[in-house]
Amino acid sequence: MADLSYEERMKWFHEARFGLFIHWGLYSVLGRGEWVMFNERIPKAHYARLADQFNPRRFDADAWAALAVEAGMKYAVLTTRHHDGFCLFDSEVSDFTAPKGAARRDFVAEYVQAFRRAGLKVGFYYSLLDWRFPGYWAPDKEKASAEAMVEQAHAQVRELMTNYGKIDVLWYDGGWLPREVRKDVAKFWRAQELNRAVREYQPHILINNRSGLEEDLDTPEQHVTASRAGRGWESCMTIGDSCGWGFIRNNPNLKTLTQLLQNLVIAAAGEGNYLLNVGPQPDGTVRKEEQTRLRDMGRWLQANGEAIYGSQRCALHGGMVGLWTRKRNLGYLHIFRWPGYDAAIPLVKTRVRRAWVLATGEEVRFRQEHNGRLILEALPAYPPDSDVSVLKVEFEGEPEALKEKDRAAWLAGKAR
Ligand code: FHN
Predict the structure, then answer these.
(1) Distance from C-alpha of 168 to C-alpha of 166, rounded to nearest angstrom
(2) What CA–CA distance (Å, rounded) separates 152 from 95?
(3) Is the pTM of this model over 0.85?
(4) CATH assignment of 6-307?
(5) I need a surface site. Which of 44, 47, 58, 261 has the fewest CB within 10 A?
(6) What is the best residue among 221, 223, 233 to mutate for testing ligand 1's pocket, by most ligand atoms within 8 Å of CB?
(7) Whose alpha carbon is nearest atom 1 of ligand 1?
(8) What was the pLDDT predicted at 351?
(9) What phi and psi, each to the nearest 5 degrees, are found at residue 397?
(10) Atom of ligand 1 nearest to the CA of 82
């Protein structure tokens, strides 16, 4: 396959905008998050015995895929192996795997097949570090162990890239080393060599920025911060507390639907994606509260997805009202704080042809003042959507903002 350009490889990702992150593994048995082995300093042999209990008979990858589709998600990233070293896939270089444990199943294979059947792109999360190696904690003192851990990473990434067909995203994590032994991460993991091999196996793949190299995607975590224009990025976030990517039995602080939708809009407004995480229970099912939020987001996207999927940055200001996305000469104003009467958007240079509520088609009156203020008039007292309402505005060309050469001009009702 001729080398694909970055833009060609990124095309589906920009169209997708919304993905499902899934943190699931042995740690879900304990229900205290994916860091439980380290947080509670559970000895390796003691923790390994959990593999004899991990037999999620209700695991159904098609149900996960159906939930992602209902949520309006277009891809997923599954933890194939987290920091605890337990693999959800079959590996020739480790006995600490689901196929060799009580489950006797290759959950990664089932995930790939089900998500492809559902028309979704598939991504693999892979933790480079493995807490079980003393060489992770003291790489200079335990050189052989550190080298064995790096070799395991190379071998298992090769298995993941060659045993499961076409993979769309390789989501590295755990590239860092303990604070006391800060090293050149890319050099320690031999990341250039590793990623060169990955791209040989999977020429179209997107690789994130967590193997010590920039690669294709920035990955702001638990916040939504846009990268520079032209650079792919994806905000990853938990639905509940930031400490709980893996299943937490009682996770009281779940984000509201409004917060989740606003995060999705903020990501789209910056031409980035939102990778929203669920932490399935030990039996493989997703908690009802998480399912509800995902399905509610899907309902919003059914009515407003045109403003999100494949959208681009927009030069216009949103004021305190909200944020814009754009598609060619169409602007989408996502209103977070419904004004209930007129909404004023400053410094609009481009003439408006039409404005209407995206979800209902209801026309919205407007006027444009000489100093670039676009006034959306006589808006309904109550927002069309209780969380985020979207106005679609057709402009005579790509919407541009007026430049304020004279910063005080607006005082006199001018914008020059
Ligand atoms: O330590 C991991 C954590 O468990 C989780 O996987 C997140 C997800 O991006 N990444 C690391 C923390 O930055």
Answers:
(1) 7
(2) 12
(3) yes
(4) 3.20.20.80
(5) 58
(6) 221
(7) 174
(8) 98
(9) -165, -170
(10) 6
